[in-house]
Amino acid sequence: MMTYEEFRDRFHIRLTAQQTEAVRAVEGPILLLAVPGSGKTTVLVTRLGYMIHCAGIPSENILTLTYTVAATRDMAARFAERFGEEIGRRMEFRTINGVCAKIIDYYSQSVGKSPFSLVTDEKRIAGMLSAIYQRVEGGYATEGDLKGIRTLITYIKNSMLDETEIKKLEQESDWRIAEIYRLYREELRARGLMDYDDQMLYAGNILARSPETLAYFRKRYPYICVDEAQDTSRIQHAIIRRLAGGRDNLFLVGDEDQSIYGFRAAYPQALLSFEQDHPGARVLLMEENFRSCAQIVEAADCFIQKNVLRHAKHMKASRSAGADIREIPLKSRSAQYAYLAKVAEECRIQTAVLYRDNESALPLVDLLERRGIPYRIRNADMVFFTHRVVQDIRNIILFARNPKDTELFPQIYYKLSSYINKQTALRLCEIGGKKDMDILEAAIRFGNLEERTELSCRTLRLHFKRLLSDSAEAGLDRIAQEMGYRDYLKRAGIGDGKLAILRAIAHYEESPLGLVERLDVLRRTIEEKAYDAGCSFLLSTIHASKGLEYDRVYLMDVADGIFPEAVPEREADMDEKERQTYEEERRLFYVAITRAKDMLSVFGLNRKSAFRTELFAQMKYRKFRDAIGQGLIVRHKKFGEGVIVEEGKTQVLIQFGDRQRRLDLKTLYEQDLLIL
Predict the structure, then answer these.
(1) Sign of the alpha-carbon torsion through 566, 567, 568, 569
(2) Is 672 a residue whose pLDDT tops 80?
(3) Is the distance from CB of 265 to CB of 159 less than 8 angstroms?
(4) DSSP code of 640?
(5) What is the Cα–Cα distance from 589 to 306, expressed in whole angstroms?
(6) Quick check: 649 pLDDT over 90?
(7) Whole-number mean pLDDT of the chain?
(8) Helix (H/G/I), strand (E/B), else coil: 289
């Protein structure tokens, strides 16, 4: 075995004091909290080498868990590159599902029974869910519906929700998820199948009920390392904790400040309760950011300090000062797209445009495509095009083109100001079909409708006739306002954000039918677009950019109601769930900020923004604080002229005539009391 010094010299290890402490921490439960850009992967890989070469631990006894298959491959490659291919082949780098598969296989062999087959084809799952959706909801599921339901099922299983909690979740969702979930599980069992989430549930149950299986894996893996622990779900933490429960040599690497996958059931609470769950645990910190310039690091750290659900730590900059964070004031989201198109046209250095949701980028993609400007996009999601709001707008426009369509009318009549019930709608379709005439004309002439309903049908029929001669933007406004679609969205509790995206794309189209055609073209273009790794201009959601870094970053749509989706009236009055939701939105903003290395720009859209206001207020305060210096003559609005005799991080001592006063810097700045 080597000493640490020999290990360091042989493998050319260069680490900070905090990093070195983490590398040499081997025994017992340890939580390493690593801020963005602090070199956590380097430390984790180096620690594995230290465990083998200095602590004498057999490589086969170390299990390293990563969040994704791609991260597993990357970690294995980095280890082999530093410590050699031969020892690298003996290491076990796995996802949690990879370990669960081993647990299920071992148990199945020991009891002589075959396990359920794992469904790896998401299309097969979508087929099952589509059939179940039709039974439960009485209609056809869109691609967006299926994706949303699939996400909720994953959330239920990973969060280990009971029936009461599932019913509560149903109240906040758009579907009868409790019944869909029950039928889906029954269908899987009937077919002898399990999905990836079941794989974890079954493995967890095996470890809880089979002492022999648990003992085998504890003996096999007496040392467990977990990367990206803040992204791990409740069931995953339960499995890890049970596996490590013997000697409890558990090393978690993560940062609750970077937990942004709540919709996937990420469970950062496990990091917050680590010391209670693991008696004798140590919490280590890596607080130095090597990625971003000092202004970005300081602003990001000040921003995240306001979160309550976190460990106490401060991110510090390794790099010196660089460019100030820029606020780009614009009048509208459309102006934002035009600005970014110009940036893309002149882009010569690595530049990323980050946004909260995939749909935010669609108007920009549309503009870039129209102008033939190169770009690349990470993990484009096509769900927008099949979202119920987008489908409704398409159907309304297409019905205007063919007002005899008896398949479209039942899908749209109740979403407009028609005052028609379902039975009447079907009767009117039958009349229109028999007489081969427009359905609304049939309603007026032969429907025997009440006066109010007949009047609404006349009005709607006129709107449909005029719709096709509108510009695309005017047509959308007609549908939303005059034809009553926005009122339907309010009744259904559906946001109108999709309408804003559609309107931005409609800006360049002459007619509503042109918009429908453009949506089809845009979807095909994005689906078929080759990923050009050499292109300097990148579009990405913040989620997809986690773990990555870019020379320049532009943050889109930082405005209340978009990002974040909602801002509490009073943060002090939030309940636990509201706080968890809002703080995750703040963490998402923090992750976005810390992707930037040299330059960060945030768009101001002439709309209120809690995040933007807070970020730039901190920057202005920093400039104010930096301007304070010993010997500087100042004027206080109450105490008059004075001279600074002593400065500190939070306070300043000023000599006013024959009296000295120690004053709080924040108060001086926020109340604008001091003139420099």
Answers:
(1) negative
(2) yes
(3) yes
(4) E
(5) 13
(6) no
(7) 94
(8) strand
What single letter denotes the amino acid at residue 343? Answer: V
Q: Which amino acid is at 351?
A: T
CA distance 229 to 29: 13
Percent share of the chain, pLDDT over 70: 100
- Band the pLDDT of 50: cuts 50, 70, 90: very high
- Calpha distance 168→177 (Å, rounded): 10
What secondary structure letter does DSSP report for 481?
I
Nearest to 48 by CA among 285, 271, 227, 228: 227
CA distance 7 to 19: 15
Q: What secondary structure letter does DSSP report for 258?
A: G
H/E element, 214: helix 211-220
Please state the φ and ψ torsions of residue 142, each to the nearest 5 degrees: -80, 170
* Predicted pLDDT of residue 110: 94
Q: Which two tokens stand for residue 158?
A: 């990973």
Q: What is the pLDDT of residues 576-622, one digit of tens each?
A: 888 999 999 999 999 999 999 999 999 988 889 999 999 998 888 88
pLDDT digits (tens, 9 = 90+) for 259-315: 999 999 999 999 999 999 999 999 999 999 999 999 999 999 999 999 999 999 999
- Identify any residues that bridge with 538 across adjacent strands, giving them in sequence order: 352, 376
Interatomic CA distance for residues 100 and 107, integer angstroms:
11
Residue 231 contacts by C-beta under 8 Å, 6 or more apart in sequence?
Answer: 67, 254, 259, 261, 264, 266
Q: What's residue 325's pLDDT?
A: 94
653: its two tokens? 């001592």
In Å, how far from its chain's centre is CA 506?
27
Asked if residue 473 lies in contact with residue 503, where contact means CB atoms within 8 angstroms, the answer is yes
418 touches 460 (CB < 8 A): yes
Tell me the CB-side half-sphere exposure of residue 371, using CA atoms within 13 A: 19
Short-list 289, 317, 323, CA closest to 598: 323
For range 118-125, the mean pLDDT: 94
Positive or negative, the CA dihedral 408, 412, 418, 419 is positive
Residue that the structure tokens 């096709």 belong to: 468
Give the pairing type, strands 659-664 and 651-656.
antiparallel
